[in-house]
Structures are given as structure tokens and as C-alpha cells.
Amino acid sequence: MSTSTARTAPPGASPGASPGASPGASPAPRRAPAGPVTQHDVVTRAPARVALALARVGTAVVFLWPFADKLLGLGYATPRERAWLAGAAPTQGYLEHGVQGPLAGAFTATSGPVTDWLFMLGLLGVGLALLLGVGLRAAAVSGGLLFVLLWLSQWPFSPGSTNPVVDQHVLVVLVLAVLATTLAGDTWGLGRRWAALPAVRRAPWLR
């Protein structure tokens, strides 16, 4: 005769149910994996999303226009004979003669072809990211760093400055931060498709 005690399931319990489960209780449903956060989750009003999209496109032009002007010499800030494609240097003249303040020597020391490439690629990369609505976090960091350096190269604390605290360079940095944190690339951009890419989902900083 076996010495083991047989356990009987309580009435109404399904076979294999745990002893502590309530009679008639069904297993908890599995939740589907959450998708990436979209701008609709962050900005709930449609007019605000449109305003942010307009700000994103406008800020893209802030970066893409000087790139095109310095590359081709469109005759605005850069005459045709001083275009990069004509053999001129986009940044060397400014770094050698246009910087001001106690950091002028440090900026002048960076003058050279490498700085030209970094500056032009920075303008192009940030501008395209803003225009397409992808990689706004990286664009905000890169573009913000570029404009902070431009701000310091003008040394706004000198006498005669129009505003020693907030000028157009600082405003661009602030706008970039707003665009990145509000996922402004989702409206009139490729932000949602970009966020759904496996690489971007694994590395949210690419968002």
C-alpha cells in the first residue's frame, strides 16, 4: 500500500492548476510588447505638433543654407569666387580674422582643412537630420555644440555686444533641445519609421 497522499483538485479547478489558484480563475493575459513612444504620446494637441514641425523645417534651413552658400558661393554671405568648390576655405578666414575675445587664440589654432570638413559636414548632417525628422537627439547634440562654439567665438560678453546672455546662437541651441525632446520628427517627417528600426529600438539615443 502506497504511503503517498493523493491530492485532489478542488471542484471547478482545471487540471494542472496551482493549488493556491482561485477556483475558476483564468490565467492573466500576456501583454503585447510596447511599441516606441511617438510624438502623439508627448504632444497631445495637433496644432502644437504642426508648430513643432514648422520649427524643425525652419531650423533645418538654418543649417542647410550656409552649407549650400559656402559650398557653391550663392552670392549672399559667400561670393562665387570664395566658394568651397572654387578652392576657398569655408572656415579659415573667419577663424583667423573674425573671432573675438580671450578664446580667439584657441579658435585660430584650429584653422585648417580638417576644420573646414568638420564644419561643412556638421552643417549638412544636422540639417538633413532635421529636414527628414530622424536622429534628432544626435542632431541636437551636434548642432548645439556647433552653435555654442560659434557663440563663444564671438565672445558676447565683450562691451558693445547686442545681448551678452541670449542671442540667436543660444536660441538655436534651445530650439534643438525642444525638437529632440518632443519627437518633432514624427510630424511631416520620417521619425516614426526611423524609431521602428531594430537598431534604433536597441539604441534609443539614435531616436
Automatic annotation (TrEMBL):
Signal peptide: none
Regions that span the bilayer: 50-68, 117-134, 139-157, 169-191
Region (Disordered): 1-40
Record's compositionally biased regions (Low complexity): 1-36
Keywords tagged on the record: Membrane, Transmembrane, Transmembrane helix
Protein name, per record: DoxX family protein
